[in-house]
UniProtKB/TrEMBL annotation:
Domain of life, per lineage: Bacteria
SUPFAM superfamilies in the record: P-loop containing nucleoside triphosphate hydrolases
Source organism of this protein record: Virgibacillus xinjiangensis
InterPro entries: AAA+_ATPase, DnaA_dom, DnaI_N, P-loop_NTPase
Domain (AAA+ ATPase) ranges: 160-288
Range of residues in the leader sequence: none
CDD domains per the UniProt record, alphabetical: AAA
Protein name per UniProt: Primosomal protein DnaI
Length: 310
């Protein structure tokens, strides 16, 4: 008999604890200001329904509502990270559901926007450039800043068909401007593709033109805004100039999609660069590329001090 008796005692003891706990939780729940408010809005709820859903009400009580108790999305305290509980009454029954909280929605939007800038071989500091950080003390760059703000101003409404061709000496901040523009465009939900040209040319020339190359080129054609950094500094190749660059620019020209460039060369100088290939001087073909560049961008000269410390 002994074991039975002791387990009976154990059960009674635990049951007592359970009863105690239950009463405590019940009191806590019914005293909670938010639960009280909820119940006051729904006087039709029967005592039986309330008792039956005590656990749901308890769950609601313990969760953070609309991030009130969470410092950030990462520190969300709720059972379902990024979801806020909602109590409703449906056909005389209490329902507990969850909806995405505003921190989660914000985080999802940021993640989405993160994807809007794609880049190939661009330094990290450029991808972090911000319009707000451009210093206005350097009057030699004022024209460029003005043009760039003008572009963004229009883009807020509709994307202009021409981007900008920044040309000037090494280190004046041409590439930095690209990064700053791309980050602003992201806020307006435009996609930007930035490419450091010398590396890109090297990559294309060293690989066979396979599906992945075609995919990339397709992406360069179709991104809302394309940015070609340091054009003219690459190894010259007639094939790249005509088949790759030519076809990308042709497409964007037809579709009226803007392109940004940076270059150490003015357009006249670039024409000379593009003409000089191993097969001789090809002025007509180089001229054709320059014509397309003019269709998709407006040249802006930048002068100023070299900002590089190395
Ligand atoms: P470029 O492309 O004309 O050769 P960069 O854009 O690479 O020049 O700029 C040279 C250096 O100066 C980089 O380290 C860049 O981050 C920095 N820089 C350029 N413009 C700014 C700016 N407005 N504010 C802060 N740093 C800048
Ligand atoms: Mg540069």
């Amino acid at each position: 008999m002994k074991p039975v008796q002791s387990s009976l005692k154990k059960w009674m003891r635990e049951n007592e604890n359970f009863q105690e706990n239950y009463t405590k939780i019940r009191e806590e729940v019914l005293k909670d200001p938010e639960i009280k408010e909820f119940l006051s809005y729904h006087p039709q709820l029967t005592q039986r329904e309330i008792e039956k859903n005590l656990i749901k009400l308890y769950e609601y009580k313990t969760q953070s509502k609309q991030c009130s108790a969470c410092s950030s999305f990462e520190n969300c305290q709720n059972m379902l990270q990024g979801y806020s509980p909602i109590l409703q009454v449906d056909n005389g029954e209490i329902r507990l559901s969850y909806e995405k909280c505003h921190s989660r929605l914000l985080q999802e939007k940021e993640q989405q926007q993160q994807k809007l800038i794609q880049s190939l071989y661009m330094p990290r500091e450029i991808l972090q450039a911000r319009i707000e950080d451009i210093d206005h003390s350097d009057s030699q760059r004022n024209q460029a800043v003005l043009e760039l703000l003008n572009f963004l101003d229009q883009a807020d409404d509709t994307l202009p068909r021409k981007g900008l061709y920044f040309h000037g000496p090494f280190g004046v901040g041409k590439t930095y401007f690209l990064g700053a523009v791309a980050n602003k465009l992201r806020e307006y939900n435009y996609s930007t593709m930035m490419i450091y040209m010398p590396e890109f040319v090297r990559e294309i020339k060293s690989s066979f033109k396979d599906d992945s190359t075609n995919e990339k080129i397709d992406f360069f054609k179709k991104a809302d805004v394309l940015m070609l950094d340091d054009i003219g500094a690459e190894m010259q190749s007639a094939w790249f100039r005509d088949e790759i660059l030519g076809s990308i620019l042709q497409y964007r020209m037809m579709e009226r999609l803007p392109v940004f460039f940076t270059s150490n060369y003015s357009l006249e100088q670039l024409e000379g660069q593009l003409a000089a290939t191993r097969s001789g001087v090809e002025t007509v073909k180089a001229g054709r590329i320059i014509e397309r560049i003019k269709q998709v961008s407006v040249p802006v000269k930048i002068e100023g001090d070299n900002r590089r410390d190395d």
